[in-house]
Amino acid sequence: MAGIESYAVYLPVPRLDRADVARVIGGRGKGERPVASYDEDATTMGVEAARAALRGTGGADSLWFATTRPAYLEKSNAATVAAASGLPAEIAAYDVSGALRGGAGALRAGLSAGTSVVVASDVRYGLPGSADEADGADAAAALVVGPDPVAELVGTASLTSEFLDRWRIPGDVRTRTWEERFGVEEYVPLVERVVDDVLGRCELKREQVDHVVISTPHSRARATARRGFEAAQLAAVDTAGLGYAGAADLAVGLALALDAASPGDLVLAVSATDGADAFVFRVTEKHATGRRSGLADAAPGQPVSYGDFLNWRGLLPREPARRPDVKPPVPPASRRTAAWKFGFVAAQCGSCGYRNLPPRRVCLRCSATEGFEPVSMVDVPGRIATFTDDWLSESVQLPARVVAVDFDGGGRFECEMTDAVGREIAIGDRVTPAFRLASVAGNGVRNYVWKVRPHLEEED
Amino acid sequence: MGSHALTTPVAVVGMACTSFGEHWDRNVDDLLVEATHGALGSAGGLGVGDVDAFWLGSMISGVSGLTLTRPLNIAHKPVTRVENMCATGSEAFRNACYAVSSGAYDVVMAVGGEKLKDAGYSGLEMPSVPNDGTPPVLSAPAMYSMIVPAYARRYGVPEEQIKEAMTHIAWKNHSNGARNPRAQFRKEVPKETIAAAPTLAGRLSVFDCSGVADGAAAAVIVRAEDALKYTDTPLYVHALALDAGSGTGRNDSDYDYSDLAEAATSARTAYAQAGITDPATQISLAEVHDCFTPTELVLMEELGFSERGKAWQDVLDGRYDRDGALPVNIDGGLKSFGHPIGASGLRMIYEMWLQFRGEAGDRQVADPRFGLVQNQGGSPGDLVSAVTIVSDRRP
């Protein structure tokens, strides 16, 4: 039976201290939450997760991309995720956008499709001081589904229920909610019923389940539903303490549970939004417990001030520099160079071996005009050849840190260094590519590019 | 094959330069008319109709030769607009000289003008071809700021020392500009003020960067043999060199951002044409492209004035000061003038025009032998550089 062959979670590096929010808005806040950086959106975070999950797998035939904050409407974001994840043109890539329930829907679709990658990515925010802002988490998770799983699907159940508990009008920042008690009274029975349904189908009892994930934006309903399980069953997801990750929350929770699970364990994952969805997985002998999501090895968080956070979100627009408007990339040029722009594929010269970044018609070293090999630079680390801080940059976050990077095995590229706010850097530092936003132009076109970020895995 | 001195030498017989600055009350037409009429007036009272052909240097202030013909009411003449980024003014001059030297025309004009302040931007807006958004976007100060750590690394000089030399260059050029009525910024700035200014990019502060300005300059060029018909004190052209690099430095891991090879090549070519074997002693004064202070620092080596790795020392020793052995940017440079792209190369030649005619007032250099003008566009690793050598002696 199909199941999850590989999975990964991506958490952005910036962390918002809730006490910092409270100092501005009032009230109380403790702990911190992950925040998408100024150059990240649901698409770039989805790429991070998808790339990590797909590494070492046989790929996928379909891609299902879920988010409530799509970077584009009408234009597919799944297509961008597929291109930047290095997936071939033959992939069927679909957006499951808008509703929170898309996270569960994408997982169901992916599991039904058989060989797929399910990417769930979300950016959670509301008006300053809102619960969504304080208790949200920006995160992405990807699950590669296939016939040779580390967690095989045992059964699913779903219920759909039409009632109004939370809603957001397209274009709005804030989400509105109906009163708490109504939500509890609607959601808790739905969770109870869907759990009973799925366990009944799988001929399992509650106590046989080793790990339980309960994902719902309704915090009181979640607290109540959790009372139906033992603390040990809920522990794996609890330890992360991330906050609610929207359409990505179910997949993130599932990844955390799988990190903690051993072969033979049963995992129950429940999502309650506009109904309820339940999945039961049995962990197979192929599973190696721990760290598989990548969370344990992720970069440490770095604080972002509430002012910067609001600016990044467009909620505290700053006076722009006296510079011309940002020029958007144009579609025909982006199309022609899609392998470079989205896939970061360089051209290695067959004559002299030098890697041309970007690809050129004439080798910059030996002037050869043919015999170039496409070579993906996405997983190639490099070193900082030189750098500067640019206070006059178009970047949202100043100063922009611009670096020239010499990649291992050859090739030089200048770009912005990201995840480096306030970080001391030096010539020779190790860096690794990251898919990010350069800018969003006045016409709404988002300029996705490859940048570099600190390379933490093998610092020497 | 090769680059040669002009078989038929040429001379500048008339020149003019507007004041550079924020000309809120004048448009590019006004500036071009002032420079053109001024240059003609100084060439023994030539009229526009006496000029056989025109070369106009402008990057963003208009397209085609009509940018010049319309305001001047020039009709039925060949007018060519040229552009080579910040080396545009030198490029207009170079092409105009070739036209005379070739025998195609008897009297030509090189005109450079730019109106930048109307855009309301700080810094330059570079025209760009619609693209895929992947070329790195960084400000010009950021591009040139990369010289500082690279030069420090290459020669084992502490960055503090380089910053001190940069501060000296800014101080020197502002001090020179304070004596020049055409300069935009005419105030001496104490070194302490320069050193304490907050950074804009890397180690560059606002005092390490040249400003934006409006301005125009023009030159009348004839065959050297005809020069004395127009003026008793012509300025003769000994060398015209241009080097456009492959523009690949920023994608080539062999490039370390510490040199401006195109400047060195264009200088070498020019020295060969002028028969100069020891520029450090044979050049009496130089106007160089001080778009940013580290640019001027490195240029002292690229032009052969200082030994490699030693320019910072020579700068601090005052070798390039107004009263030094080889005054550099004695008119105040881009630092004091600002940089109206199409005009800057011709503004530099204008200082030579004044100096070699003994008309530079209290900036006057005694008995100059050769004067060098270096004007460049682009950034380290992605550069065009033009070098012009002039004197008052006929080649």
From TrEMBL, chain A:
InterPro entries: NA-bd_OB-fold, Thiolase-like
Organism superkingdom: Bacteria
Stated name of the protein: 3-oxoacyl-[acyl-carrier-protein] synthase III C-terminal domain-containing protein
Lineage: Bacteria, Bacillati, Actinomycetota, Actinomycetes, Propionibacteriales
TrEMBL record, chain B:
CDD domains documented for this protein: SCP-x_thiolase
UniProt domain Thiolase N-terminal: residue ranges: 10-224
Residues annotated as domain Thiolase C-terminal: 260-381
SUPFAM superfamilies linked: Thiolase-like (SSF53901)
Name listed for the protein in its UniProt record: Acetyl-CoA acetyltransferase
Organism this protein belongs to: Nocardioides humi
